[in-house]
């Protein structure tokens, strides 16, 4: 597959009450098509967040926004521009970070979590030295991370409740 140079196609999701920032790496092909986070139907992100907070799984983008904001979360991706083949995090080259500082200035973020190792390693390399705010890595909800069962993801991701208030 050909590597394309792409700019992140949509902005962050956050509100004045957001306390936890969740960072992915870069939107998948499916997410880029729908212009919203975790658009691949096999990505377990929405099921995990719903279970962690005891809510009904959202189906529409509007319901997903309400879930995130209602749970005092914020969403964005570590990468603002990169070269990528399809949806493959392993193919990412020449990553340029998003301005995460914008969210940190506008919200009272208490904790940053990265959805998977790629997001976390890029955050640690490109953003943490500038922001001086550490991030914690959670196991990826991606279908590519098939070794993790849904129940295990929910257990690990439950830590975000401690910070969301």
CATH superfamily: Uracil-DNA glycosylase-like domain
Order of helical and strand elements: EEHHHEEEHEHEHH
> How would you sum up the global shape?
globular
CATH topology type: Uracil-DNA Glycosylase, subunit E
Give the averaged pLDDT, no decimals. Answer: 94
How would you name the oligomeric state of the polypeptide chains in this document? single chain
Intertermini distance: 43 Å
The number of distinct β-strands equals 7
Description of the molecule:
By secondary structure, the protein is an alpha/beta fold. The chain has one domain (4-164): Uracil-DNA glycosylase-like domain (Uracil-DNA Glycosylase, subunit E, 3-Layer(aba) Sandwich), CATH 3.40.470. It has helices spanning 29-34, 45-52, 61-70, 101-106, 117-131, 150-157, 161-164, and strands spanning 4-7, 20-24, 73-77, 79-84, 93-97, 111-115, 136-138. Strands 3-2-6-7 form a four-stranded parallel β-sheet. A three-stranded antiparallel β-sheet has the order 1-4-5, covered by helices on one side. Helix 5 links the parallel strand 6 (111-115) and strand 7. It starts with a strand and ends with a helix.
